[in-house]
Every structure is written in structure tokens, then in C-alpha cells.
Amino acid sequence: MIAGKIAMYRGALAACLLLPVASAANSELYRYTNAEGNVVIDHRVPPEYVSAGYEVLNERGVVMRVVPRELTEEELANRSAQERLEAEALEEQKRLREWDESLLLRYSSIEDIEAARERELRDLQIRVSILKSNKRSLRQQVETYQAQAADQERLGRSVDAAHLTAIADLQGEIESTDRSIADREEEIDAVRASFQKDIDRFEQLLEVVELRRSLASQ
What residue ranges carry the coiled-coil annotation (predicted)? Predict the structure, then answer.
């Protein structure tokens, strides 16, 4: 019975793949990952890659449908696993479509994305510079209080509580500033990574446009 379900599932996937190819008027393209792990965009998905799942793209390269990977025999035996996989595919379809549409709405080229990245990084780097400047000022104040405390000790006097409290407070501010600097630097790394993902994704959208032009010229 499981073998029969697998055959039906494979048949449905094959039908999804072959129908668009059979129609010359269909404008859909497909994105899949090949055996080398490379993302490929083409007017068809080779049969050997259908079972791994693929994405269906419209004329702008926006994801219109995500076809999930083929279920294993064990997963097919568990109906809840199949339903979960289908739900995950729908959620991924929604996420990718919204991402693609957002990129196309905000940017016209890779250069636009790079310019937006540099603006955001510049703002964060200015904040880091301000924090580092504040930290230098705090250190100078600590050194001043410490020098005054040392002078009192050399004169045989006890260091007054106000100096000790001021030094402790300033050192606490320095530690807090260090944490803020670390947070901003982590944010800078996250911004770089996020924009790089946008650039990689936008390049895929451009690849769809170029491929469609190539197919049209043929």
C-alpha cells in the first residue's frame, strides 16, 4: 500500500513538472538545487531532481509555488508527517514570495542594495565611534581620580569615600559601554549578513530575467 502511495505521489509531482513544459505559452520557470549543491534556474526540472523539491517562479522571478521534496516510505506511512511537510512548503512559499516582492519594490539594482547597506553600516559605525570616544573620556576620568587617590596616600591620608565611589561608578560605566560597543559590532555583522542574503537573492531574480530574455530570443 505504501508503494502505491509513493507511486501516486511521484506521479503527481511528474504531472506538476510536465504540464508547464508542454505549454509553450506558459511563462513559469523553475529553481532547484543540483547534485553539486548549486542553485539552478531553468524552464524545466530534470527528473532526477524532482524528488528533492523545487520552486516555481513567475516572469519577475518571484516565487509562486514551492513544491516540497518527495516523502520517504516512513513519512508516507505517517499522515501527519505529510501534512506537516505540505504546511512547511506553504509557509516557505509565502516567505520567499514576500521577500522577492519586497526586494523588487525597494531596489532596482545590486548597486541600490549596496548603497542601502553602506548607509545603515555608516550609521552603526558612527554610534560605535561615539561609544569608543565616551569610553576614552571615562578612562581619563578614572585615571584622574586614581592619580588624586595616589597623591592622598603619598601624603599619608586615607583615600576619601567620594573618590572610591566615583572610581567604581566610572568603571561600571566603562563596562556598560563595552557591552554597548559589543552589541553594536554584532549588529554590524548581522546587517552585513542580512544585506548579503538580499544581494544573493536579488541576483537570482536578475538571473530569471536574463534567462527569460535568452529563451525569448531563441
Answer: 71-187
Placement of cell 553539486 in the chain? 36
- Say which residues have a Cβ less than 8 Å from residue 76's Cβ, sequence separation at least 6: 2, 5, 6, 9, 82
Give the mean model confidence (pLDDT) for residues 118-140.
Answer: 96
Mean pLDDT of 43-68: 89
**Which burial class, exposed, middle or buried, applies to 57 when counting CB atoms under 10 A from its CB (0-12, 13-18, 19+)?**
buried
85 closest CA partner among 69, 99, 73, 98: 69
Residue 23, CA atoms < 13 Å, CB-side half-sphere: 10
Between the CA of residue 42 and those of 22, 30, 78, 143, what are the distances in Å?
14, 5, 33, 66
pLDDT tops 90 at residue 212: no
Condensed to tens digits (0 to 9), the pLDDT of residues 155-179 reads: 888 878 888 898 999 999 999 999 9
Q: What is the three-state SS of 136-161?
A: HHHHHHHHHHHHHHHHHHHCCCCCCH
134-154 pLDDT per residue, tens: 999 999 999 998 988 888 888
Contact 9, 77 (CB under 8 A): no
* Rounded distance between C-alpha atoms, residue 208 and residue 52, angstroms: 21
* Rounded Cα distance, 35 and 38, in Å: 7
| Rounded Cα–Cα distance for residues 161 and 146 (Å) | 12
Residue with cell 567620594: 162
CA–CA separation, 168 and 58 (whole Å): 63
